[in-house]
Specification:
By secondary structure, the protein is α/β, with parallel strands linked by helices. Bound molecules: S-adenosyl-L-homocysteine (SAH).
């Protein structure tokens, strides 16, 4: 088998990045744009010793879970990785992704995770849900100005002003901006030459208030006839804030440092409602938020209401608690909780977000909160002694998860409960391991799908301070190691195999996985592998990609 060969595959599983997995002649192949149950023809694009990557060429038999993507560009655009899967299958995929990350990357036992994990909260309408869009502006081959998305891993812009995940006002705004650019000879920014003025159009829409915000990112200080642009945009119903953001750097970062309003207000408002966590119907109480262009605000407001209502539920407040809300943004969660707490501290690194958070406290008549600007890891270390010790900590970090120092201060402060909100279950798993090793246990885990059609999902976890007699994590891996070494004809140590796998494939593998693959290859007796001393014998299963890499190592050491 070699690159460019066509192979037939039956897709058996989906990896956490959304690529389908199938086998051919003992090799494992990863193929994007496929669903479990698809019978396909794929072209090999990259091949390693035991696994490879292939491109979908033809669907011979479609999976019963396959649907026609609603967007014409679903495959070309990197944004929606799983639009070809029906929504219930997407939710199954996400539930499994969270579960597997916790087991594999967090090292938690399978049966334990199954006991604490609740069913993912899905969306009623998994399209047109995003309140925010950032469209790059460019020129196509014919020289026309286009707004759309970057194709695949390139920076070529494919024109699409009507993203299926966005709101309909996006299209009108983009057409207005492009019309103005054509009329006044304004060019799109070209990152190769650094020429041209308009880089991106950022749009926000308040689902509750129906207010719109446009922020046009430019590669200059001023645009010609800005007042015409402002006037045309302000004809659009609900247009509340029109600004220019100046970014003259050669960078992938979208926003620059300066924002200048050309018409209307600098911010828009939106409101989020408390929901009943049983049926997720709105209860009525609402919190109002002011949002600046450069601040974080959850992109899916319907699901955010469910998420924040769950945060409140998990936090278990009775009005007397001190709460620390770390990575608080514009104070969204802080204010959602403040009415049920004694005092809430919010910490956030973006100064404008803290300015919005303070204004939001005022807008909602909430006075039992204080917000601090700074990195959570630094601000807490500096100010922890002057802050009231928390009963509950809420953390909601970006994808890279919490800084280690932040986790250490959290552990030092010994709250009764920690509510961890995460948009990346891999870093969540890593951080939960630190918190659990530091004296906490996971009580509840739940996915909340904020990002239909994509491989991403939000998760929420409740941790509770461990009572000292409850230390119950059993180190299955250690047992595996001992058992295996007594029975196996071990040519390479586990450490040597791990090192080899890491160097060859960049993958980290555990002793347990190595033992499982050895067992599959007949090197160790099944009895050893199957009898850990823990109460339950269910264990995480080695993923196919890692199995392939371990087999390669075993072959290298001539053990198979
Ligand atoms: N809880 C908020 C924001 C969550 S997004 C909400 O639900 O809206 C994560 C936030 O963390 C962003 O606002 C980002 O600016 C902020 N952030 C990123 N790194 C940080 C750090 N080291 N310390 C504090 N805040 C940080």
């Amino acid at each position: 088998m070699k690159k460019n060969d066509l192979i037939e595959l039956m897709i058996e599983d989906i990896g956490t990045d959304g690529a389908g997995i199938g086998r051919c002649d003992g090799m494992i192949f990863f193929v994007k744009d496929t669903a479990i149950g698809d019978k396909i023809v794929a072209k090999i694009v990259k091949i390693k010793k035991n696994y490879g990557y292939a491109r979908l060429m033809e669907i011979k038999e479609a999976s019963p879970n396959r649907v026609e993507p609603r967007c014409l560009y679903a495959r070309a655009c990197g944004g929606c990785q799983i639009q070809h899967m029906d929504y219930p299958s997407q939710l199954v995929f996400k539930q499994k992704k969270i579960r597997e990350n916790l087991i594999r990357l967090g090292g938690f036992e399978e049966a334990f995770i199954d006991a604490v994990m609740e069913p993912i909260v899905g969306m009623e309408e998994p399209f047109a849900y995003r309140n925010k869009a950032q469209f790059p502006i460019g020129q196509n081959a014919a020289g026309d100005i286009v707004a759309g998305f970057y194709a695949g891993r390139t920076h070529d812009i494919v024109s699409n002003t009507n993203c299926a995940l966005g709101v309909s006002v996006n299209q009108r705004i983009l057409e207005t901006v492009i019309g103005y650019m054509k009329d006044y000879g304004v060019l799109a920014y070209d990152e190769r030459t650094g020429e041209g003025q308009v880089r991106h159009v950022l749009i926000r829409y308040g689902f509750d208030t129906k207010e719109s915000m446009v922020c046009i990112v430019i590669n200059c200080k001023r645009l010609p006839r800005e007042e015409v642009l402002a006037e045309r945009l302000s004809q659009i119903a609900g247009m509340t804030s029109i600004s220019l953001n100046i970014n003259q750097k050669n960078t992938n970062v979208i926003l620059g440092g300066d924002t200048r309003v050309i018409k209307g207000r600098p911010t828009i408002n939106d409101a989020l409602y408390l929901r009943d966590v049983k049926d997720f119907k709105r209860i009525g109480e609402k919190t109002v938020y002011q949002i600046s262009p450069e601040c974080f605000y959850q992109v899916n407001p319907v699901q955010t209401e469910k998420l924040y209502s769950l945060v409140l539920d998990y936090a278990g407040l009775n009005g007397n608690e001190i709460v620390w809300d770390l990575y608080c943004g514009i104070g969204t969660i802080s204010l959602f909780l403040a009415r049920s707490a004694k005092w809430v501290y919010g910490v956030e690194v973006v100064p404008q977000a803290i300015a919005d958070a303070n204004e939001n406290a005022r807008l909602n008549g909430i006075s039992n909160v204080s917000f601090m600007v700074g990195k959570a890891e630094e601000t807490l270390a500096e100010r922890k002694d002057s802050m009231m010790r928390p009963d509950v900590i809420v953390v909601d970090p970006p994808r890279k998860g919490c800084d280690r120092k932040c986790l250490e201060t959290m552990l030092w402060s010994k709250p009764e409960r920690i509510v961890y909100v995460s948009c990346d279950s891999a870093t969540l798993a890593r951080d939960l391991r630190v918190l659990c090793d530091g004296g906490y246990e996971i009580v509840r885990v739940r996915g909340v799908d904020q990002f239909g059609q994509t491989v991403h999902t939000e998760s929420i976890v409740l941790l509770s301070k461990l009572k000292s007699n409850k230390l119950k994590h059993i180190n299955v891996e250690l047992e595996m190691d001992e058992l295996d070494l007594t029975a196996a004809e071990s040519k390479a140590t586990y450490e040597e195999i791990k090192d080899y796998v890491l160097k060859q494939s960049g993958l980290k593998v555990s002793n347990l996985y190595i033992a499982q693959v050895k067992q599959k290859c007949g090197i160790i007796e099944r009895a050893n592998y199957n009898l850990p001393k823990s109460e339950n014998s269910r264990q995480p299963k080695c993923p196919l990609e890692k199995e392939a890499a371990i087999r390669e190592a075993l072959e290298h050491f001539r053990m198979i």
